[in-house]
Structure formats: C-alpha cells, structure tokens
Amino acid sequence: MEPISAALLAALAGGAGGEAGRQAWATLSELVRRPFRRDGSGDGNRDGDGDGNRDGDGNTGAPAAGSAEPELVRLAAHPDEAVLASALSTALAVRAAADAEFRAGLVRWHRLAGSLHTGDVHNEISGGTFNSPVLQGRDFSGLSFTTPAPPRVDPGTDSPPTAPD
To answer: DSSP for 127-144?
Structure first.
C-alpha cells in the first residue's frame, strides 16, 4: 500500500475540500478509532478479558499504542504543522502493516479521499473576445447555460453583424 500523503492529511484536517473534505476526515477518524486488531483474530480483544481493550488491569481510556489515534488528534488540533501530518501518515502505514482489516479500510478510504482536489485554484482569462458567461473556481458540476448564438458576420461586407434569424 502506498503511504497516505501528508499534504492530503493536513489539507483535510484543516477543512479543505468543503463538506466532502470534512466527511473524508470524519470517516478517517472513525476508521482509526476502530479497535486495533494487531493479532488478526478479528475480535478486537487484545488482552484476553473480552472487553476489546488493551488494558491489562482496567480500561485507561488511552488509545492502543500504534493505533494512529494520538497522531490523528494532534493533527486535528494543529493542521498547519507538516510534521504532525507526516507523523500521522507514518502511523497509518505502520498500523496498516499490522492490521489487515484496517489496511483494507484505509485503501478504500484513500481511493475516495484521494479523488478530492484540495489544492489551490488559479484562474486566468486574458486577451480575446468572450461571448459567453465565464465561471472561475473549481469542481463545478450540474451547470448549464442558455445563451443566444453569437451574431453572424458577413465576411464580404463592411456592415456590422446582423442578429441571428
């Protein structure tokens, strides 16, 4: 599995991508907070007491070591810190290597989240004559325009263009 981009993680933690980005971050958070199944048994029980917590003598409420949850929480609190995004990317890769179910979920999540465009947009219009509406932005869908046809030009005359029939 390819590593999750630290830039993507930082962008999503910072709220990039609008509602889709927030949803992607929430889905990643849910995935990370699922029980860590390091032993591959699929029951989520890592200490033998049947409660699904790796706690030994009681539930401390702390995330399991290697779960990637501490890195997720730190990046959510400070999304502008690239080192935290890189730490989360590494923690996700380590957990994916140890937990096959998590790896499968992370691959599915990455396919969906990777399709989000969270980069900057640069629009530029220069020169020429424009006869239609122009939109500037990113990720438009479901738009349609009804505009009149451009005026006809009679190339053999010096007369101004006539309106369409």
So the answer is: SS---S----SS---S--
